[in-house]
Amino acid sequence: MSLAALTKELGARFQMEGGLTDSPLQERNGRVEGQFGELRLSSVFGRLRSAACPLLVEGLQAGLRVYADGDSPSSALDVFAAAQDTVAVINLDRLCRTLHLLNFLPLAHEAPRLFLYVNPHHVTGVKSNHGAYFEDMLARCGLGPERVVISVTLGHGAGRQSPALRQGLENYRARGYQLALQLKPRPGVEAVNFDLLRDTRPQYLLLPHGLGRSASSAELRERRLRLSSLTAIAHDLGAQVAVEGIETASQAELSVAAGADLVRGDYYESSRQARPHAEEHPGFFRNRPLSPAERAERQRSECSTLSLLGRRWQYS
């Protein structure tokens, strides 16, 4: 089924369930946009790359862009603030994930996993069968839960919500979804809920590098120690660590030295060799996804070639 046909079908489902006048999903020139009240929603994807071999893209992390007529993009927090009750949050969260899923389809050959943020209030607001609704959406698109990583943010009240949040995440896992906990500290604070981390045992822990572009040597050393400690804890629990927001060579070197498994940031996208960009692949399922064996073979081949040529990975 084409992207346009899938968008029409899934949009009609939202329209019927929400009693809406129009479909909240529209396909235009190979991209899908959403509508929530007066706001337009769109997807943007960041590449999670192997820290050992950044040519290898391990996942695409979906982000939300929100537009009002004549205004610059707003943050996802703004649009969720406009959802005034639990039911509205649940419906909006489902709409955003379906939007990202549809926009992921033309890129599904590029990475084996789609990382999707789920609002913690959605997780705690749904009482049972977490992931069942979205699993139906995945099936219509020819994908299964094993291709999706459900990501929630630590902090921001996660401690108070831990029992319900923990049970909700376990329900997702039982359906075959992978889990990620994302650390978004306040300035100067790293409020890690270690109990939730230990109990949930996610497959991924997403961390900010926590450095400015002009960090001093002392700041680099201190941050490396803190990142290394968090990485060691995550590895002990069986989780891979992804460091996000990398913009400079020093931030990249810090992340690798601290033991990161995955990396993401503009620093890697600035290299021609680290592309292609998503917008260069408008075709729908132009290539099939690689099997795990094929991806492993490609990683060995590409990383071995770099080694044999004696080239140190650099980005210009």
The CATH superfamily is: EAL domain
The assigned structural class equals: alpha/beta
What is the overall number of helices? 11
Residue runs with pLDDT of under 50 for 5 or more positions? 272-289, 305-316
Biggest sheet architecture: 8 strands, mixed, barrel
Q: What is the domain tally?
A: 1
Strand content: 15-25%
Number of strands: 10
What best-fitting shape do the alpha-carbon axes yield? Answer: globular
The third-level CATH topology is TIM Barrel
Based on CA atoms alone, the radius of gyration comes out at 20 Å
Observed structural traits:
single chain, 8-stranded mixed beta barrel, 40% helix, 20% strand, TIM Barrel, 316 residues, alpha/beta
Description:
It is a single chain. The chain has helices spanning 3-18, 76-82, 86-104, 120-125, 132-140, 162-174, 194-200, 217-236, 249-257, 266-269, 292-308, and strands spanning 25-28, 31-36, 39-50, 57-67, 114-117, 148-154, 178-183, 204-208, 240-244, 262-263. With 316 residues, the chain is an alpha/beta fold. It has a single domain, classed as Alpha-Beta Barrel (TIM Barrel), CATH 3.20.20.450. The chain has an 8-stranded mixed β-barrel with strand order 3-4-5-6-7-8-9-10, surrounded by 5 helices. Strand 3 (39-50) and strand 4 form a beta hairpin.
